[in-house]
Amino acid sequence: MVVNVPVRLVRKDGELIPLNVTTLTMDVDRSINPHSIPFAGGKRFAFDLNMAKAVILLEGVITDDDLSSQTTDIGSSATATIEWGRVNDGQNTTQTVVGDGEGTDLTSLAASMTNDSFVTPANSPVLSLKDLTGTVHEIFFIRSSSQDTFGYDMGGSGKYHVTIHNDSVMYTAVQIAANLEGLIQSNLNSNALSSKFTAAVAESTITGLNTLVTIDLDANGDGSDGVSPSWIGHANYKPKTTFFTGGRNTSSVFSSMSAGDKVMSLYGTLNNSNDGGVSVRSRDARKYRAETGTSLRDLKYGDYIIGIQIPFNSTIDNDGSDKYVAKNFFMPTGNMENIVTKHPNQAQIASLHPTDTNDNNDTTFIKGSVTKATFVQMGGEPIYQFNIQFVPVDFII
Question: How far apart are CA 163 and CA 185, in angstroms?
């Protein structure tokens, strides 16, 4: 099993229950019954209706948190994107490609900017990034005749900058994306952005070029989800931007629990819980969430075990220095699946959390339910052995 990435049960509310699994069994029964054909010399026929039955068996131990060598939940960092291949207008609808010179993109904006100026007029774009500590970092996108395509403290400004126009011509979207990546990845001062964020350029689905910049927080947590990045300046000229999402704190519903607490939590849940179907919204439910931060539906149905995450070692698409990368098993059911969608390269990174536990096609986990669980206390000590039977199911009523 991948180090520090445990098997995790997925609850209806998206919380995870890590398990110290010592033996994992994944069984598939294709339900094919062969029948002999009379007067055919023992030849057999069978109907294969693709009616496979599956079961996952988990054996392991439950201990106090301070006795476990595994992290309870590795958490995840938030990610945002900036698409330099498009700009958004005031109504947040996409417009033309950046740098095409037709007057509705950053080209017309840069033409009106002052060379090497960090003064923020109404139409000057400034990117605001907030890290998990709440500190805001501003990046000025400027017109500059300097050789610096990005930098810090240019001309004593004391500010980060990315050049979008060299005082002669407008940079292309690919160049601007590369300049922004270079700034964030560089170590320019003691408070460098590279200590807070990681940036990478990727191919855009809009332009087919490397105009997309992904920005990851360098620490796990949800403190910046839905908040940053934001833009200061003229709304008509900001690139297509998504806020930070996907951040989760390094914790779980099993954190800071004794072995007995964990068994009691699972035992209580499995004795009385149901799915509750797709979440619904009502005025009272919205009011309760606004006042308490908790969903009424999650209070009643949130602890239902709706899936499982099982990590495995993968060498596919691994660009890191390690031989393996941890990914999750998934179960590709449905009549539209094919040899491409069932390939291991479709598996998701193990640190990802399900975004919607109602989604039958979410490849970050296997949807289903626990059908049987046995807990045995060992020798009167605060250690429990467990046997859990999990059955994959796409639709639970």
Answer: 16
| Secondary structure (3-state) at 333 | coil
Peptide bond into 332 cis (omega under 30): no
List of E strands, 160-211:
160-165, 197-202
Tracing tokens 């994992």 back to the chain, one arrives at 24
Instruction: Find tokens 């606004």 and name the residue.
Output: 290
* Lowest-pLDDT range of 103-112, 122-131, 252-261, 327-336: 103-112
Nearest partner of 68 among 381, 373, 312, 383, judged by Cα: 383
CB 347 within 8 A of CB 327: yes
> Residue 181 and residue 149: Cα distance in Å, rounded?
11
> Using CA atoms, how far apart are residues 92 and 231, in angstroms rounded to an integer?
13
* φ, ψ dihedrals at 41, nearest 5°: 65, 35
pLDDT of residue 287: 56
pLDDT tens across 220-260, in order? 666 655 566 877 766 556 788 888 876 666 556 676 788 99
Cβ neighbours of residue 101 under 8 Å, at least 6 residues apart?
107, 170
Domain ranges of the chain: 7-37+45-75+255-392, 79-245
Cα angle 357, 289, 355; round to 5? 20
pLDDT in tens, 114-125: 777 776 655 567
Q: How far is Cα 359 from Cα 361, in angstroms, rounded to an integer? A: 5
CA distances from 383 to 19, 66, 67 (A): 13, 12, 10
The distance of Cα 362 from the centroid of its chain, to the nearest Å, equals: 12
- By CB neighbour count within 10 A (0-12 exposed, 13-18 middle, 19+ buried), where does 95 fall? middle
Beta strands in 72-134, from DSSP E residues, in sequence order: 79-88, 126-130
